Each structure stands twice: as structure tokens, then as C-alpha cells.
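cache lookup: miss for this entity combination. No prior model stored, computing from scratch. Input as submitted by user K.M.:
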Amino acid sequence: MTQANVIGAFCRFYSVLLYAYPAGFRREFGGAMRQVFRDRCREVARSAGALRVARFAAQVAADFAVSSAREHLAAFWTAARKPVFRGPITEWAVTLGIYLFVTTTLVQAYVIPTGSMEGTLKVGDHMLVDRVAFSTPGSLGRHILPYRELKHGDIVAFLYPEDPRQTYVKRVIGLPGDRIHLESGQVVRNGIRLQEPYTQHIGAAPDAYRDNFPLPPSPYTTPRGRDMLEQHVHDGELVVPPDCLFMLGDNRENSADSRYWGFVPRDYVVGKPLLVYWSYDAPTEDLQEWTFTHVVDVAAHFFSKTRWERTFLVPRSQAAGESR
Amino acid sequence: MNKKSPQELLPLTPPVFHILLALTDEERHGYGIMQDVARQTDGTLQLGPGTLYGCLKRMLAAGLVEESEERPDPELDDERRRYYRMTALGKRVVRAEAQRLAGAVVAAKSKLIGGLL
């Protein structure tokens, strides 16, 4: 790349930055600002020196941040003094309104923190959850996106019944009325043995409670799970009560699921995982909140640790095969 | 024309003060102002495009500067540039600000003479 090309690229980048200024200000001064920016670029290029370039970049960044905020504030006050609220206020209000509507009603971003669905979903898959797909009647979003009833094999995002602040993703195994038990890790539903191609069985040590559920509670069974075992086991089978779901992880031997903490109430269903928009290889604790080390890690390894082959992957519901 | 008293506009922010100083001897375009301000301050005040035009916008509104005609700068290239020049009010304001700063320097010296200076 020649120097002129580099400067040209910088100027195009700066033209994009200009859109952060209020429209009125940009129309009035944008062209002149671009001109001045280009002149400064040439001046810095003539003097060369990595230090000068870095200082120039820092100056431009600071100038951009401070002055764009300041002009927005100025535009805001000018608009606020007018009798009718127009311009920037309406613009921001509409944007905010759309954002709130979309995020509260239509979709939600979510990241897979654990490997309980490994084989289908990986730790670090950032996904969008469609909140309308499994919504109950009366939901506003039903007028905008398609919806349907839940069925066996659906992958579902739901609020963790033991702590509704957390969202989990697992697969629907039992719907209301189903009789369920496990034999050596295989699910038997209503007397029929399921062939589940989506599951992953990683050679963990045998565990009677996990593989031959339901049995008397294991130490890992929560009080909710114990309630389920006490009230809903008939003749060695678990019977799913109305408005409840029995959820299992695809990584069957390494999944804390309905076997341990009980049914998921229908109301706790958040939606249907729609697609993976970014998959990043990071440990569980980094995915729960954005820590400083995680930010640094992403900045340094974005290209190498992003699992590009998983970008825009769509997880699919899959019905289990059946055999007697 | 403008009967506004210069005192009402004081104190000026450093960028506004130096932009006015840059325009005292001749009219300049944006980049010219930027270069002159850097010269005046030994490079300590390097205006960015956003700060520069934000200030010019407010200075135009306050009547401190006005736009001159658009024309190319023979030393740079043949692109047309917008030139700015100082108004009579701008001249009075920059003078008043310079006096205010001189007073501040006198006050600072009398305080510091026994100490640092």
C-alpha cells in the first residue's frame, strides 16, 4: 500500500466516524472537517515516526469522543428549548423504543456458559433467542414472528427454576402427561425406547441415579428435584404434570438438568435459540460477565479464537427415533 | 451592529482564545487556524477537527467570527476551502480576554514570588 492509499483509507474511516455527530452539524461542517483531517494526516505522514502517528491517533480519538458528545448535548438543548420536541430527541426516542421492543419482546442475546449441550452447542456460542416462537397466547410478538406449540426434541431457552436470573438451554424430553424413565442412560418415554442421534455420551464413570433415573435422590438432587421425585413418580416412572416440561442436556453424562432440579414450568420458557452469531473459545467464568481479562483476551485473539465455522449456525429441533 | 459587551463573553476557553488570536492578523481556513494555534502554543494545543469546528460554530453564533468567501489555498492544493475572519466584536473580545489573562498573571506572580518564582 502506498502512503496515499493509507491516508485515503483513514479518511474514509473518518467519514464514517462523522456520522456520530448530529446531522445538522455534520451537514454544516462535515466536509470541512474531512478536509482538515486529511491535511493533518499528510502533515503527520511527512514527519513520520511511529510515536507521532500514535499521538495523532490518540488526539483524533479524544477529539472525536469529546466533540461528538458535546455537539449532541448542544443539539439536545437546542431541541429542548423549542416548543415542539423534534429532531434528535425524537430520533433517539424512536431508536430506544425500537430497541426496547425488540429486546423485550422479539429476541434476546444469550451465551452458552457450560458444556451441558456439547455436541450441539459449545461453550462460548453467542446466540440470539427468538422469544416469540414458543410464546403463550396474548404475547404481543405473536403478531410479528411465527410461533408454534412445543414438541419433543425442541431446543429451548428457559429461566433456571432454582434461580430465574439465569437462562439455560436444553432439549425438551418430556411434555405434560409423558411417562419417563432412563435405562442405562437411554430415555424410555411412554414405554418406547428413544434413539437420540443428537446426544453425546462421553465415557464418564457410571452413575446409577443419572443413568437409571428415577431412583432415590442423589446428593446432587436439589430440594425441587426431591419434591418432583416424591410427588410425580408412579411405578418407577416420572409422570410430567400439566404445564411443565422435563428437560435434558444433550451431553447426557455431564448435564445438570431436570433429573437434578425438577421440571421447568411452561411460563419459564424464554424462547427458541435462533442462531449462533458469534462463537468464541473462552472458559465458562469469562462468559458470565465481561471482565477486564476477557476484554483483553478478545482484543488479542479475536481472529484466532473465534470459531468461524460456527458463525450463523442454526441449532435445529430434532425428533428422536423410536424402538421397542 | 452588535451592541453586546465583550465582558459578557469572558472568560474564553483556551481553544476559542487561540482561534481568535490566529485570526487577528489574517483570515484563515480551518487547517490554517489549526496550524497557527499549534505554533502559538508550541504544539501544546493541537485542535482536532471536531473541537475546531464545534468552537467555530459557537463563535459564528456569538458573532465573534464570520465566514469569508470560499476559495482554494494556493499553498496546499486547488480544493476550495472555507475561510473565516474576525469581526469587530471578536477583536474587542480577544483584547479584553488578553487583559484579563494579564491581570491573572500579575496576581499569580504576587502570590508565588515568595514561593516558587
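stored under new cache key. The CA atoms of residues 105 and 196 of chain A lie 32 Å apart.
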